[in-house]
Design a protein that fits this description.
The structure is a single chain. By secondary structure, this protein is an alpha/beta fold. The protein folds into two domains: about 130 residues, Aspartate Aminotransferase, domain 1 (Alpha-Beta Complex), CATH 3.90.1150.10; about 230 residues, Aspartate Aminotransferase, domain 2 (3-Layer(aba) Sandwich), CATH 3.40.640.10. It has 14 helices and twelve strands. The chain is globular and about 55 Å long. It starts with a helix and ends with a helix.
């Protein structure tokens, strides 16, 4: 009855933890990858106004023109990127699905830096492609000597996620120039997933698209503005790729939610410095707490995750023990071919982070 493709894809380990959280009484939840702040009031009001004005029907598949214009202006001013074409997507995840369906053939190889966002390898599998993992341990950096040997005549795509989920790594301009140099003379599509672009804790963030104009840049509103349930994102890049993604959206998502597109215009006019400062402080709280407890961990430079090495056992053994102590976190093997780390999400109240650190201190001493 079922298609072979679904048998090759496991249920997300993240979803399993979410389901478990629903059955627990007052868990210390450091597993959820979404902001703990609500959608800003001006964005809510814009969405409500659109609904009340009757803007509730389908839009054109590619999205409303005024949102395209506003996104293009943002990309030009903030990322020095002038894409050939843009598409308003149903979230960044929707953009990822369309990009893979539009470009990956059976047998194509897709290079994925490891650790990686959970969707990447499963989307490759869905398209009958072959994931090729670029090991970035122990410090989660990109190195030419590790990447170059992985490029073969069958390489179709390279994925870049900066800031990165689950490690919080932000790739430097030199690392991204190295990537651009390697793919520049080959017919390799580079997807730059920049959904966490607003959570960068040091100066000097570089978008790959500013160095490699043929990149396909994916971004969205979920993380920056707390709009995870509004499903609004965008894709920007080569006209031929965006054109095929738009065609596929017509037969899948149809269009991004209409009222959310109007709200997106209001969101792009907001400043988010307060959110960034708050999350930088939370980053320091969890990082310093883990270091003091003796964990081996890299300091995140962006996003809102930290990826410590487990002090004993496998990631699954450690995570299961944490859950028995009422602490929810995600085994690192959900995001990696290794089973040595766990992902902790820190978009949570300080009290929750402190409670989590108490459990982690006890576990480190086991």
């Amino acid at each position: 009855m079922l298609a072979d493709r679904v048998r090759r894809i496991d249920a997300s380990g993240i979803r399993k933890v979410f389901d478990l959280a629903a059955t627990m009484k007052d868990p210390i939840n450091l597993s959820i990858g979404q902001p703990d702040f609500d959608v800003p009031e001006p964005v809510k009001e814009a969405g409500i106004a659109a609904i009340r004005a009757g803007f509730n029907r389908y839009t054109v598949t590619q999205g409303i023109p005024e949102l395209h214009d506003r996104i293009r202006r943002m990309l030009r001013e903030e990322k020095q990127f002038e894409p050939e074409a843009t598409l308003i997507t149903s979230g960044t995840s929707g953009g990822l699905l369309l990009a893979f369906l539009a470009t990956v053939n059976p047998g194509d190889e897709v290079i994925i830096p490891d650790p990686y966002f959970v969707m990447y390898k499963h989307l490759v599998t869905l398209c009958d492609g072959k994931p090729v993992f670029l090991d970035t341990y122990p410090d989660f950096r990109l190195r030419r000597e590790a990447l170059e040997p992985l490029i073969t005549p069958r390489t179709k795509m390279l994925l870049i996620n900066s800031p990165c989920n689950p490690t919080g790594t932000v790739y430097s301009a030199d690392e991204l120039r190295m990537v651009a140099d390697l793919v520049g003379e080959r017919d390799i599509l580079v997807i730059s997933d920049e959904i966490y672009e607003s959570f960068v804790y040091a100066d000097g963030y570089t978008s790959l698209a500013s160095l490699y104009p043929r990149a396909l840049l994916l971004g969205g509103f979920s993380k920056t503005y707390g709009m995870t349930g509004w499903r609004l994102g965008y894709a920007a890049g080569p006209r031929e790729v965006i054109g095929q993604m738009t065609k596929l959206q017509q037969y899948t998502f149809v269009c991004a939610p209409s009222f959310a597109q109007k709200a997106g215009l209001a969101a792009l006019d907001l400043k988010t410095a307060d959110y960034l400062a708050d999350y930088r402080r939370k980053r320091d709280l969890i990082y310093n707490g883990l270091i003091d407890a003796g964990y081996e961990v890299e300091k995140p430079e962006g996003a809102f995750y930290i990826f410590p090495k487990v002090p004993w056992g496998t990631d699954m053994e450690f995570a299961e023990t944490a859950i028995r102590n009422n602490l929810l976190l995600i085994p690192g093997s959900v995001f990696s071919e290794r089973n040595t780390h766990v992902r902790i999400a820190y978009p949570a109240p300080d009290e929750t982070i402190e409670r989590g650190l108490e459990v982690l201190r006890r576990l480190a001493k086991r």
